[in-house]
């Protein structure tokens, strides 16, 4: 569960990190200013919508960090220009991870080519019974042609 007091402290760390006021932060993530004010004062708990908007606008905020305090902020070592919020990721240093991910993607693409349903049984349908809401029923057999169903 999310501890509201700890969540508020982490939210204030984000505001300080970007040098934003509560009002400008609320405007940036697209929530009412009063919603953020109620959150910071402890009156309300954070909603899923609020957290999702926060993560969408500030992707360097780790979901587990903001909710539970696990992990780090910022999520990755990012160079952030606070004046216009442009972000630059460092070049990847571990190419084995990239290659491993590419192999996984290739395996998933190959798996998608397999048919979703394979018929392995040679069983034949003997009859199909339709029961109607009024209590009547109808028995359909393959010999009736397409099980007697209209096209």
TrEMBL record:
Stored Gene3D superfamilies: lambda repressor-like DNA-binding domains
All residue ranges annotated as the HTH cro/C1-type domain in the record: 11-66
CDD domains per record: HTH_XRE (cd00093)
Classification via InterPro entries: Cro/C1-type_HTH, Lambda_DNA-bd_dom_sf
Top-level taxon of the source organism: Bacteria
One MF term in the entry's GO annotations: DNA binding
UniProt protein name: Helix-turn-helix
